[in-house]
Amino acid sequence: SGTYSVAGSPGGGDVARRATGYVPDTRGVFPRLTGGEHLELAARLHGARDWRARADELIERLELDEAVDLPAAAYSHGQSRRLSMAMALVARPPLLLVDEPFDGVDVQGVETITDLLIESRADGAAIVLTTHLLDAAVIADEVAVFRHHALSGPHPTTDLLAEHGTLQQAWKHLATAPSATAP
Questions:
Q1: H/E run at residue 147
Q2: pTM score of the predicted model
Q3: Number of neighbouring beta carbons within 10 Å of residue 136
């Protein structure tokens, strides 16, 4: 339980919603809209004004240029994931909620999405990332492990790496540590 705010506005309010980019674990796209229409919708919902250049950049970087004019129903799972990422980033929101962004994405797409997240963080965005790929979590400042209804963390990533060498080894330790508590 508790409260939160985003961009100085109580969570759940219109300001907070416009300031949050979201990549859902499920497809997160509308089958009849084209990729371009998705990006325009996301930009307008976030109140972005000069979004077209950013949309073009994301389309190119996420390799959606050949699919951007097709309805999302024609997209592969990986293309849908990339489109969801582009939708979350098009307005450059200060908060990103990103759930399993690498699911179904090829190696090049994983690299590009990772780069985009790192760039967003460098631009000042706060990112909440859920992933089963522990190697990808290395981009995080802090890591928390949730296993068997117990939460351990958050822990500074640099501390975990210094103590355990890899996040995989840290996960093995944290998942069985007696300090894990039920949320």
A1: strand 142-147
A2: 0.85
A3: 18
